[in-house]
Structure formats: structure tokens, C-alpha cells
Amino acid sequence: MNSILWLVAFAAFVVVEGSTTALVSVWFAVGSAAALVTSLFNDSLTLQFGVFAVVSAVALAIMVPLLAERRKSRKVPVTNGSPLTIGKRGIVLQPIHPGELGRVRVDGLDWQARSEVVMEANVKCEVESVDGAVLIVHPVPAETAAGTL
After folding, report:
1. How far is CA 110 from the centre of its chain?
2. CA-CA distances (angstroms) from residue 67 to 22, 28, 30?
3. Does the model's pTM come out above 0.85?
4. Does the N-terminal or the C-terminal CB of the chain have fewer CB atoms within 10 Å?
5. C-alpha angle with apex 44: 28 to 47, nearest 5 degrees?
6. Rounded Cα gap, residues 90 and 18, in angstroms
7. Non-local CB neighbours of 139 within 8 Å, separated by 6+ positions
8. Are 109 and 90 in contact (CB under 8 A)?
């Protein structure tokens, strides 16, 4: 009879975990599976509940640090308009006039760009900010632009 209890508990925890993506009950599903196996060999509900509690706690203690390390090591994905482009240098592909969009190449990618000053094609530029997927650039003075791409 206890086996049915732990099987129902296991199924319930799996359903709850399946309906969320927050890892809120997977520890209890592991614990109830261990208690289910224990119930096949021992009729003591106290022992089964102890196994459930200990295995759930151990699963939680093992997984939380692993998940925290995984979250910490994730890199921010580079997307259009990523702040990772700020400070990078590139070259103007299509002329940029104040109030109009031009195009620049930064890190091998073509971007739409704006500038407060006129920038002709083939001028070296630096990204000062990002507005959505549009880079805000300014020209790089000739003496600092030499050899910086």
C-alpha cells in the first residue's frame, strides 16, 4: 500500500516539475522515487519518509551549487544592439549624416548607425552607445585610428 502512496507522490512531483521550468519539485521527485524503492523492501512508513527526506535534501544540496555555477558561467548572448559593442572600433560603409542612418562594420558585422557629425565612407569610427539595433558612433581621430582595427 505504501508503494502506491510513493508512486502517486512521484507522479505528482513530476507533473508539477513538468508544468514549471523553475526546478521546484525535482528534488522531491527523486526523494519519492527512493522512498518507493525502499517501500518495496520495508513496510515502515517512518523509514520510507526518512529516506524521502534525506534523499530529497541530498539532491537539493548537490544540485543547487551546480545550477548556481552554471548560471554564473553563462555568457551574455550577443544580439543586435548589444552593449558589448560599446567602445569597439569599426569603419563606415555608407555615409552617415546627422538625423539619417548610415552603415558601419564593427567586429565583422554590419550595423545601422547614427552620428551627430557627417561621416563619409571608409572613415574609422568608435561606438559610443547603442539605441535598439542602431549604433551611435563618432569619428576616430586620424592619429589614434592608425592600426586600431
Report:
1. 24
2. 11, 17, 17
3. no
4. N
5. 45
6. 46
7. 115, 117, 119, 123, 124, 125, 126
8. no
Q: Please, is 45 exposed, middle or buried when counting C-beta atoms within 10 Å of its C-beta (0-12, 13-18, 19+)? A: middle
Question: How far, in Å, CA of 31 to CA of 146, rounded?
Answer: 64
92: exposed, middle or buried (C-beta count within 10 Å: 0-12, 13-18, 19+)?
Answer: buried
109, 88 Cβ separation under 8 angstroms:
no
Count of all residues that appear for the chain in the document? 149
Q: pLDDT of 43-77, one tens digit each?
A: 999 999 999 999 999 999 998 888 777 777 665 55
**How many other β-carbons are positioned within 10 Å of the β-carbon of residue 131?**
11
Closest CA to 105 of 118, 121, 128: 121
3-state secondary structure of 133: coil
Nearest CA among 59, 58, 39 for reference residue 47: 39
Q: How far apart are the first and last CA of the chain?
A: 73
| Residues 6 or more apart in contact with residue 131 via CB below 8 angstroms | 81, 114
